[in-house]
Amino acid sequence: MAMRDLVSGAAACGDSSSSSANPLASLANALVGSSSKTQERLKEIPTSTPTDPTSQFYSTALPVNHLPGSEFDKPLLDANSQASEFLHRFRGASGLEETWDEIQRETGVAGPRQLVPAIQQPPLDGTPQRVLSSFLHSFLDSSRGGVPFHPTPLPMLGLSEGDKQCIRDRSSIMARHLFADKSEEFIDAQVNALLCSLDIDSNVRGKGPMPERFRELEDYWNESQGNMRPGPPPAADGWITEFSQHRGKYDNPDSWANSFEQQHGANGWASEFEHSQLSSVGQMQGMNMSNFAAMEQTRMLANTLAQNGDPKFQNSKFLQFVSKMSRGRQHDATDDQWVNEFSKLNVNDWADEFGQQLGEAALGDSTSDSWAQAYDEFLNEQVASKQQLDSSRGVYVFSDLNPYVGHPNPLKEGQDLFRKGLLSEAVLALEAEVLKNPENAEGWRLLGIAHAENDDDQQAIAAMMKAQEADPTNLEVLLALGVSHTNELEQTAALKYLYGWLRHHPKYGTLAPPEISDSLYYADVARLFNEAAEVSPDDADVHIVLGVMYNLSREYDKAIASFERALKLKPQDYSLWNKLGATQANSIQSADAIMAYQQALDLKPNYVRAWANMGISYANQGMYDESIRYYVRALAMNPKAENAWQYLRISLSCASRNDMLEACDSRNLDLLQKEFPLQRDSSTVEVVA
Amino acid sequence: MADSSNLKSDAIMEQMKQHIATDAGKKLTEKIGLVYQFHIAPKKLGFDEVVYTVDLKKGEVTKGPYEGGKPDATFSFKDEDFVKVALGKMNPQIAFMRGAMKIKGSLSAAQKFTPDIFPKPSKL
């Protein structure tokens, strides 16, 4: 992502007025701008207006590279070394303070070793641009097939040295992403073929800043990355906008100081950071390297800060620095005040505390690694939960690729598949149906049931809500909603639907006075159901609903009695066997529960929910090895059963199978199935103690 | 409903109460041997909290604060977040990092609080 800009040096360092829109840019300006010579040089860099804030944000890091002491004669190898080098240098200059002083001297002696040749922007002739663009495109295309790329003769493009370097650096980095699975030689060959065609010497490294000219190359990159990740649009600009919004809020220095103090406790800080990271993580996923680099960067920056225990750092220079920075942000008038406020914040304490925490964490590299890992995990989880957010809000989430769209009769197909027990396939066919006929209550209902049997209550609820919209009095829908909400421990909602069932029932509707439907009391509803059961003791449905009701109130013995009664009337109802089993399991009668689940599975072998419930029962008895096998079995049938993945993870760690956690996290079902096979017929699996 | 409170956590605590008496639950008390106190708020941390004591020393779950002294660790959650952590949807470290879980007491005791302590509800 934007790390690429840092690597390739997207030199979008605008003039001071434009870059002041972001504080890091003003920081850079404050640093670079104080040296007249550097400033001059800066102006000569083509200032292609940054179109997306992403590149602007990261590009601002570049001028820091121009700090005295920076070395440009080193090849920009990869993002990692670049990022760490960047920070290294930051530290290598023995702290901000010295760097600052150095700049302040204004001796005009710029970096002794790097002299950046001024790059004239080449004439932007449309034709070479186009040629180049299609040429680069073909390079990227070749990457998809993994075919070797052949040099092509191209017309003279009139590329400047800077351009060439830019292409060289970017293409070699890109190639390493594109051909991550290929050998180093292959990558080199590809890059060389590209460079050769463009008449770029692949060895000589220029020393200039790369002009921000080849946006196209970057666009192709984004495009190619976009193909790999379905994530939402960028990313890091969320960071910036958020930051600037906050800046606006804190324009008043007092409030800034206050809120900083409030957020002093790690929480505000952490959650905001998380928030912004979250938006960028979608991008990061496609790019492990930059992900790692960014993490590395954060860690090293933290280190740098912590290591500088020099009180002078906190007191004088840093504040001057900050004040200078703030000048770019219309703080001129309040400058001193701002600084004073800031110093009241006990910067020392803050830094000490931070350093201390870091010191504790950084005992060994491994601990900080695990930190980073945990954070990574956390981000992944966040992404997952974000994706789930829609469904938990009751919005149905359709599958991306649905082969049944366009099927002449998807409802019939869905019903057939459902009957055959191919639940995940049935889900797709039924989705196609409700996409075609959004008002088809039966399509939604069956879809909801398929999801429930597939152990996905969120989607089940979402689908059933749609079914209810289309047909508000459908009893099966109301019961299913009651059950799903019970499973999600949402008692009020469950009660509402179960009461709805009673009210809309042709036989018992008269029992239910409509006026109490606004504020339901469990006891009232339970009483009504008991009346209904007295009216017709041979109606299995009443007993089923009653059993669900008793589950809600956690009167499991009564619930079990109700389900058993219903089973006498409907012994072939697999979902009823599962309900009985789940109730027994929840009242800690796991052995009985497993018998009941087995009945359900005998009737419907692909009943994912029963498989997952089996796993739960074994896990709750501390038989983690068994539970793993059942969870894996359930997941093999429906890899979208989120709960089962979570439970599997817990069981794996409880069974001391941490070696398989990664397979669980990467959802490597093949490996898990191989590792944890389940023999179906040995229903009572021997306990391997 | 047995009582008026309508927390999702109640269901889990109720199940925990029975679970802790089983063999698997007894293993937990051997393994952990600590007393945890949970403050569970319906919507906002610190408001209308329901307090549970999960005594993994004696093997008891009771409503209300711990009466045998000071609990080894006290956790504060919102109802939703407690459920997420107890069911393994959110890892406790992450919950802590997000500010979804507050801890008082011994940190090393708190670290022994893992999602496998709680039994998982089965689905109807």
From TrEMBL, chain A:
Its main location: cytoplasm. InterPro entries: PEX5/PEX5L, TPR-like_helical_dom_sf, TPR_rpt. TPR repeats lie at residues 441-474, 540-573, 574-607, 608-641. Residues 46-56 have a biased composition (Polar residues). Keywords: Cytoplasm, Peroxisome, Repeat, TPR repeat. Residues 33-56 are annotated as: Disordered. It is found in: Cytoplasm; Peroxisome. GO terms for cellular component: cytosol; peroxisomal membrane. SMART domains: TPR (SM00028). PROSITE patterns: TPR, TPR_REGION. Pfam families: TPR_1, TPR_16. GO terms for biological process: protein import into peroxisome matrix, docking. GO terms for molecular function: peroxisome matrix targeting signal-1 binding. Belongs to the peroxisomal targeting signal receptor family. This is Peroxin-5. It comes from Vigna unguiculata.
UniProtKB/TrEMBL annotation, chain B:
GO terms for cellular component: cytosol. SUPFAM superfamilies: SCP-like. Residues 14-114 form the SCP2 domain. Coiled coil: none annotated. It comes from the Eukaryota. Pfam families: SCP2. PANTHER family: SCP2 STEROL-BINDING DOMAIN-CONTAINING PROTEIN 1, STEROL CARRIER PROTEIN 2 SCP-2 FAMILY PROTEIN. This is Sterol carrier protein 2. It comes from Vigna unguiculata (Cowpea).
